[in-house]
UniProtKB/TrEMBL annotation:
<feature type="domain" description="Amidase">
    <location>
        <begin position="28"/>
        <end position="452"/>
    </location>
</feature>
<dbReference type="InterPro" id="IPR023631">
    <property type="entry name" value="Amidase_dom"/>
</dbReference>
<dbReference type="GO" id="GO:0016787">
    <property type="term" value="F:hydrolase activity"/>
</dbReference>
<dbReference type="Pfam" id="PF01425">
    <property type="entry name" value="Amidase"/>
</dbReference>
<dbReference type="InterPro" id="IPR036928">
    <property type="entry name" value="AS_sf"/>
</dbReference>
<keyword id="KW-0378">Hydrolase</keyword>
<protein>
    <submittedName>
        <fullName>Amidase</fullName>
    </submittedName>
</protein>
Amino acid sequence: MTQSDIWRLSATELTTQTRAGDISVEAAVQSSIDRMQEANPALNAVVEDLSAEALERARTLDKARAAGAAPGPLHGVPVTIKINVDQAGHATSNGVTALKDLIAPADAPVVENLHKAGAVVIGRTNTPEFSFRADTDNPLHGRTYNPWGRHISPGGSSGGAGSAVMAGIGALGHGNDIGGSLRFPAAANGAVTVKPGLGRVPAWNPSQKAERGMLAQSMSVQGLITRSAEDLHLAMPTMIAADARDPFHVPLPWRGEEPEGPIKVAFTRNTHGYDLHPEVEAALLTARDALNDAGYVVEEVEPPNVFEAGRNGYRALMGEVYAMMKKDVDAAGSQTVRDIFEVYFQEFPPFMGDELLQMMAKRSHYAREWSLFQQDYPLVLTPFLPQPFFKPDRDTEGAEGVHEVLGCAVYSYAMNFMGLPAGCVPSRLAQLEQGPQPINVQIVSPRWREDMAVDACAAIEARVGRMHLPLWEMMDQG
């Protein structure tokens, strides 16, 4: 393999060679930087180029290995970091012009854990203002584009991460998820991710001036967007390493006990009144058949009420956002994002006062129902969205646009509200009138068992293929 092709390797393939000394870290990082310089101008996925410090770190890692230091599990893996998380010496702008000079005094736990494992940050990726859209555009850095074409939004809020990793810019893309911000970009770009459960990955920004609201703390999680499920198994044990700055982190190993007998999977096509698009149904059926073929026992059975848990959970979050965040959005946000927030509050009428407290309490009821259901069906295969991914700026088109983008995504934010892990994996490449488009499905796993969701993603991927391969063929053909 020539240096110009190293960027094509998965993180798992790359570490096999960097740890053995067959490929130097400098060569691996340089190849990814070259790819970034080739692909990023058309995508605007990476909005801060860290090539110089990445190459300096790569040489340091190579020297340390030559001197006898043991390489870390992610030795030499090029990664990107989302601009809403602290990286020492760089702005945590969150896509907001007023925060463009908010320089982080230290690394957030996820950045520190990646560094300790030997990863190399090559750039920082774009997010919408306040990281609160399912699309990625902002006045500070501009719009991010989807490598599949400009007919599809790149998703959000980790849209830069999803676009970058699928275009071959870094093997791992850091992102986070309060209502779907890892899974929306994975679904938009045909990538693989797992939204970790509550307390799984330590989180905190040293630059923050105050603690986040209780629902923001309990619904938001840090994670990775990758091109393959195996890379999640490689990298997530690094991400979940304990950090005392997150006092509610749960220090459990990545792998849990091996289940006895075949794993039962509940399969649902219920979209709770929203039309199920034929391509989404086809993706679900493909995923179902792949899991059956892999030895899972898949039964079409209805899980506890996702619509109620999701809608009430997001209305509760909107109540907290209205009380704690609206003032900042009004003061520092663009007119576009202010208008979107007004429609959010219409789509999800905020719970306030006693009602908000009651719904926060009812969160345990919804989580308990799912916990009991998952005693019989540990995994649940669901749609992610009921229709193929939406076009850019669809959420700027009033109530109808916000409803298509976020209103119908109950399978997404229900899992944030209940704190459950949820994998997201492509199972179909749809050929639509506007162009080719990947279709992802979601796999919910029991609390603390992200590994089971990733195993199921890997089983589907093994039978349908990895979505970046046809994408790269398309990109190579111009």
